[in-house]
Description:
Aminopeptidase; 2 domains; globular
Amino acid sequence: xxxxxxxxxxxxxxxxxxxxxxxxxxxxxxxxxxxxxxxxxxxxxxxxxxxxxxxxxxxxxxxxxxxxxxxxxxxxxxxxxxxxxxxxxxxxxxxxxxxxxxxxxxxxxxxxxxxxxxxxxxxxxxxxxxxxxxxxxxxxxxxxxxxxxxxxxxxxxxxxxxxxxxxxxxxxxxxxxxxxxxxxxxxxxxxxxxxxxxxxxxxxxxxxxxxxxxxxxxxxxxxxxxxxxxxxxxxxxxxxxxxxxxxxxxxxxxxxxxxxxxxxxxxxxxxxxxxxxxxxxxxxxxxxxxxxxxxxx
Length: 297
């Protein structure tokens, strides 16, 4: 295949779930950018569209001019280069994203066709579900201690399933979290928009999550969906930074709720933010899944 018609791509809709998930369920690739839920909730922000062509699932971000390496029938670096050249003749300059190390190794000629650029800010953090529940070892002892302290200090706290009635409280908590963390305002506006869309479509997207409640006040929540057959994707996880141990409790309880169904948990990316990187690495990921951007030569 050397042609790809970008005009035939379309935004992901709820009714597309079955088609897209059929590709995700057959892959062991765990990049969260392929998630059906992420395509819906971040779709307008990044101008995401998709298409099935030649037994491959393609995603295109018009905003980023980026095509992740497709899922489905294997593709070679030579084919990708031909597609890029064809699109360039049509006046569209694209780059390919989310090539993993395995793809690079399978295409030894790739360096002659593409500039290969690692993108650590888009690396996904992958954890064993059981590890996040048990928190064994010296490196995770502090997490376990914080959880114990939380339950000693707040014995009235309860963990409950999240539902659509919690939407306003989740937005308020996310806003307060950002105020305390002095997070990047533009990035927060994007995240707030995606969070609002996830909460609005909570049931149609078959999302699930938990809430941590103390004296009828929401102090932490998580929102999760399946990424593929053995991996869950944690799209959002927020806690009140003033409540010691709340972040560790919602993390552990979310993992506990996924046990027996998913062996792995993708806690998504750090976006190049130092504090977020430190937080994700403090849980000792089993894998930091590095993506590579391929810029045609």
